[in-house]
Amino acid sequence: MNAGARRLRVVYGDITRLEVDAIVNAANSTLLGGGGVDGTIHRAAGPELLAECRTLGGCSPGQSKLTRGYRLPARWVIHTVGPVWRGGGEREDEVLASSYRTALALAADKRLATVAFPAISCGVYGFPIPRACRIAVREIEAFLASSPHPARVDLVAFDEAVRREYAALLPGSV
Ligand code: ADP
């Protein structure tokens, strides 16, 4: 295991409960809230989050934007827009990789120590879960190998299919 891999771990459950510097939101391009993890984050953070998101002018797929966390234990939320899966021929892999990289770059710019990611695009956006989890682990490990920030990244597994994939990809981290 390399130095990057030791800084990456798998945790279970609801990302809004985590006491980390930033949680990542699998947002849609309006940044105005939605279902899944996005809805849960907005409910937990309170209406101030939506008010700040309204000032941001949306976000393109593969890009990320930072807000405060308001009532969340996390001080910051990094909103990223993953790709909608359309069969794999529309650069979905690249867009998903870019979501992880741009979110991590924001965390590194802010010198954040701990960041937690949900499985971006693995819910209603329909990305095949094994393929998405491989991209997540590859991109995070590559980023950590080249940057001291963040010091630690949590991959949050909320459902069983994602948990199984991360357990297979990162044995010993679970
Ligand atoms: P997307 O639109 O990017 O597919 P979803 O929110 O539908 O986003 O799903 C992304 C992943 O987040 C799924 O694996 C889903 O199980 C997971 N998820 C849903 N709620 C939570 C939560 N409270 N904490 C962590 N992960 C969650």
List the topology elements:
Layout (H helix, E strand, L loop, with lengths): L2 H4 L1 E5 L9 E6 L8 H10 L1 H8 L9 E5 L7 E6 L10 H18 L4 E4 L11 H18 L5 E6 L2 H10 L5
Parallel strand pairs: 1-6, 2-4, 2-5, 5-6
Antiparallel strand pairs: 3-4
Helix pairs in contact: 4-5, 5-6
The protein binds adenosine-5'-diphosphate (ADP).
Q: How would you portray this structure in words?
A:
The chain is α/β, with parallel strands linked by helices and 174 residues long. The protein has one domain: Leucine Aminopeptidase, subunit E, domain 1, CATH 3.40.220. 39% of the residues lie in helices and 18% in strands. The protein has helices at residues 3-6, 36-45, 47-54, 92-109, 129-146, 160-169, and strands spanning 8-12, 22-27, 64-68, 76-81, 114-117, 152-157. It has a six-stranded mixed sheet, sandwiched between helices. A hairpin with a 7-residue loop joins strand 3 and strand 4. Helix 4 runs parallel beside helix 5 (129-146) and helix 5 (129-146) crosses helix 6 (160-169). The model has no long low-confidence stretch (mean pLDDT 96). The structure holds adenosine-5'-diphosphate. Adenosine-5'-diphosphate binds next to helix 2. Adenosine-5'-diphosphate (ADP) binds at residues 14-16, 26, 36-38, 40, 82, 118-125, 156, 158-159, 162.
